[in-house]
Every structure is written in C-alpha cells, then in structure tokens.
C-alpha cells in the first residue's frame, strides 16, 4: 500500500513539474563590430564554446558561439549571416540543447552534410546516433594509443611506390592553386583501401562542390564517403567547424575498429578561418598576420587523426591526408612549415611537373613518408632509392642533353639515367579513373630498373 502511494505521489510531482515553463536566460546585444557580437546579461552563465540564439529584427533566430569575454561582456560570432542583428536584440542561452556535439550514425555514409550536422544534399533528414560525440575532444593518449598499422594502398602509383603510407599515418599534400590537389583527393576516395572515407571541404568554391561530387568523386566514391562542406562564402565559424565536424565523424568510425581515410581540403583555409576569428576578438597578429592561437589550435586538430585505442572491434585507424595551399608556391610559409613539423610525411605537388603534362604532379625527390623504412621490404626500399637517384641525376643533366652538350658514352650512370628516367616518369602518370596497387606499382618499377622479381614466399 505504501509503495503504491509513493508511486502515485511521485507521478503527481512529475506531472506538476511538467506544467512549469522552462527557464529562459536572456541577454541583450549591445554592440556589433565586424564579425563579433557583444552580449550582456549572460556572462555568468556562459563559457567559451557555448552556443546561443540571436534574435534578428525580423524575428528570425540564428545560432552563434561564444568566442571570448572582454570586460564582463560576452563576445559571440554567428554561424550564418549577422544581418538584422543590432543593439537591443535578444540573445538566448541554450540551456537544454546540447552544444558542440554531433550524433553521428552509420547511416551518414553516402551523405553530404554541413558542419552542424544538417543534411546538405537534399535527401531528407539524417539518422541520429544514440550517443552524441563532442566536436572538441582531446587526441588519444600518446602513450596508450596503438601504433601505426601495416602499409595501406592509396590507389595512386607515385605514392604507393615513393611515399608508401601506413594505416594511421598522417600526410600533408603541399601545392599551390590549380596543381591538382582536388583531383588527387578524388583518386584516393575512389581507389584507396579503406572502410570509410570522410572528406572535409573547408572553404571550397561553391561553384565547384557539385562538380567535385559528381565528376571527381563520382557515385562509387560517394557511396562509401561522408562529405562535410563549408563553402568559401560561409562565416569563419562554419569553415572552422567543418574541420572539427569531419574529424568527429572519422573518430566515430575509428572507434568501431574501422579503417578510415580522412581527406581534408584544406588546412590552410581552416587556419585562415581561425585567423579571422582571432583577429575579430582582438588577438594581436603575429607571424604573417596569424594570431598565436592558430598555431596552438592546429596541432589539437591534426593530432586527433591516427591510430585509436584497442576496442572490441579491433584497433581502428584514421589515415589522414591534409592538403596545404601554399601561398605563392612558398613551401616555407607559416602554415606549411607548422603542418610539415606535425605530420608523418609530406607530398609536394609541383606546378612545373603539371605544366609538362604529368599528373599527379608529385615531385618525387621532394616528397617523403617517414613510415617507409618500417613498412616496405629491403628490396623495395632499394628499388625506390635507385629510382630516386636516377631521377635526380637526370634532372641535373637534362639541360646539357637538350643543348647537345652531353656525348653519350661519357658516363655510364648518366646514360642509364637518360634511358630510364623517362620510363619512370611515364609510370608515375595516372588517369583519374585508373586505380593502382602497391604490389603492381613495385612490379612496374622493378621491370623498368631491370631487377629480377623476388620469389613469392
């Protein structure tokens, strides 16, 4: 009897609580300067990273994020246009809605989404996963995360042979504009050996997004991909969030023990978004106009890629390839220099090679994978060293040969380079729709160099 009475009172209490209006914390906008909106009345209830709703003069609501505090005034930036927001407009704190989280679901594969987890492909609502994941999270513990796995096939001959990649490795693709970065990424998405592809298009030209999805990525590539898009006209918060959202999606699949290929184009536009945010909040410009926070936030993103922890489904990996748009083809500019020091290798795309008609326009002599010694056999490493030496020697004497200043037979090694280097260059050329395997890449290189094939064991 007592138990029944207690349950009845509890039910009545719950019903009574449901009749109360939920508490709403409101502040007021007191200033708008550039990209920053200043809010009073909420400073004691908010922290950096919290999201709020800003009411426009037309009655519409736009989502914003707290990016700093100054003199007791909260500084926010909107995820969309700030048009219609002015002094006196209402700012509401989001008390019951989760903040920077994504409810990632396996059903997101094959879909195109925006950085806030909304569908961007016109194919209806996205399924919501049962466990929302924070968009900002620390990388796996350096001493407890797994080591890199065995080598993985990227589907591109020049990288398979000369910059072989391992599962969980992070590589940078460095190039100026118009040298073929996007096409190379689409080749990875189509042909690489992986379970899931997560593609982040950060600051991409809006006109080119659909062309990239339909022509470069294609139906086959999209069918195993999750694409996160923030175009160049998006506010800086959206461009920044695209990188974090894509990494969160990749971590969801990695934690299931899957082999994830993470492609981001580009880290440079991510850093430009961070620069806009930092300068708008009053941070001092430092190296080439980048505030110091850019170079502290950058490794926090890049280090999240790589091997995960042991899980019931096995060890999962995020094999990541980040493009870096070098300004004026200067490979020592601040972003390129910082990224190169964090990642596990770099691939240089050279405009001169592309102008000569060889794509992918990878400069073999300037590209490096730090994982090569531990994943290729001694015979394969010897092959690539020999090929690099021939390509380097051919580059040194190419002008002499063109001018007719070199007489064949003067140097046997030079004669070998003149004969074999063009064949190696021809092997490195690859059409966008053509796949390649690691074994096939080394077989072709072995045939060119005249080495006997190693018997299968």
UniProtKB/TrEMBL annotation:
<dbReference type="Pfam" id="PF02874">
    <property type="entry name" value="ATP-synt_ab_N"/>
</dbReference>
<dbReference type="InterPro" id="IPR022426">
    <property type="entry name" value="FliI_clade3"/>
</dbReference>
<feature type="domain" description="AAA+ ATPase">
    <location>
        <begin position="167"/>
        <end position="354"/>
    </location>
</feature>
<keyword id="KW-0963">Cytoplasm</keyword>
<comment type="similarity">
    <text>Belongs to the ATPase alpha/beta chains family.</text>
</comment>
<dbReference type="Pfam" id="PF18269">
    <property type="entry name" value="T3SS_ATPase_C"/>
</dbReference>
<dbReference type="InterPro" id="IPR005714">
    <property type="entry name" value="ATPase_T3SS_FliI/YscN"/>
</dbReference>
<dbReference type="InterPro" id="IPR027417">
    <property type="entry name" value="P-loop_NTPase"/>
</dbReference>
<dbReference type="Pfam" id="PF00006">
    <property type="entry name" value="ATP-synt_ab"/>
</dbReference>
<dbReference type="GO" id="GO:0030254">
    <property type="term" value="P:protein secretion by the type III secretion system"/>
</dbReference>
<dbReference type="InterPro" id="IPR004100">
    <property type="entry name" value="ATPase_F1/V1/A1_a/bsu_N"/>
</dbReference>
<keyword id="KW-0067">ATP-binding</keyword>
<dbReference type="GO" id="GO:0005524">
    <property type="term" value="F:ATP binding"/>
</dbReference>
<comment type="function">
    <text>Probable catalytic subunit of a protein translocase for flagellum-specific export, or a proton translocase involved in local circuits at the flagellum.</text>
</comment>
<keyword id="KW-0966">Cell projection</keyword>
<dbReference type="InterPro" id="IPR020003">
    <property type="entry name" value="ATPase_a/bsu_AS"/>
</dbReference>
<keyword id="KW-0969">Cilium</keyword>
<keyword id="KW-1005">Bacterial flagellum biogenesis</keyword>
<dbReference type="InterPro" id="IPR040627">
    <property type="entry name" value="T3SS_ATPase_C"/>
</dbReference>
<protein>
    <recommendedName>
        <fullName>Flagellum-specific ATP synthase</fullName>
        <ecNumber>7.1.2.2</ecNumber>
    </recommendedName>
</protein>
<keyword id="KW-0406">Ion transport</keyword>
<dbReference type="GO" id="GO:0009288">
    <property type="term" value="C:bacterial-type flagellum"/>
</dbReference>
<dbReference type="GO" id="GO:0005737">
    <property type="term" value="C:cytoplasm"/>
</dbReference>
<feature type="region of interest" description="Disordered">
    <location>
        <begin position="119"/>
        <end position="148"/>
    </location>
</feature>
<keyword id="KW-0066">ATP synthesis</keyword>
<keyword id="KW-0375">Hydrogen ion transport</keyword>
<keyword id="KW-1278">Translocase</keyword>
<keyword id="KW-0282">Flagellum</keyword>
<dbReference type="InterPro" id="IPR050053">
    <property type="entry name" value="ATPase_alpha/beta_chains"/>
</dbReference>
<dbReference type="GO" id="GO:0044781">
    <property type="term" value="P:bacterial-type flagellum organization"/>
</dbReference>
<keyword id="KW-0813">Transport</keyword>
<dbReference type="GO" id="GO:0030257">
    <property type="term" value="C:type III protein secretion system complex"/>
</dbReference>
<dbReference type="InterPro" id="IPR000194">
    <property type="entry name" value="ATPase_F1/V1/A1_a/bsu_nucl-bd"/>
</dbReference>
<keyword id="KW-1006">Bacterial flagellum protein export</keyword>
<dbReference type="GO" id="GO:0046933">
    <property type="term" value="F:proton-transporting ATP synthase activity, rotational mechanism"/>
</dbReference>
<keyword id="KW-0653">Protein transport</keyword>
<keyword id="KW-0547">Nucleotide-binding</keyword>
<dbReference type="GO" id="GO:0016887">
    <property type="term" value="F:ATP hydrolysis activity"/>
</dbReference>
<dbReference type="InterPro" id="IPR003593">
    <property type="entry name" value="AAA+_ATPase"/>
</dbReference>
<dbReference type="GO" id="GO:0008564">
    <property type="term" value="F:protein-exporting ATPase activity"/>
</dbReference>
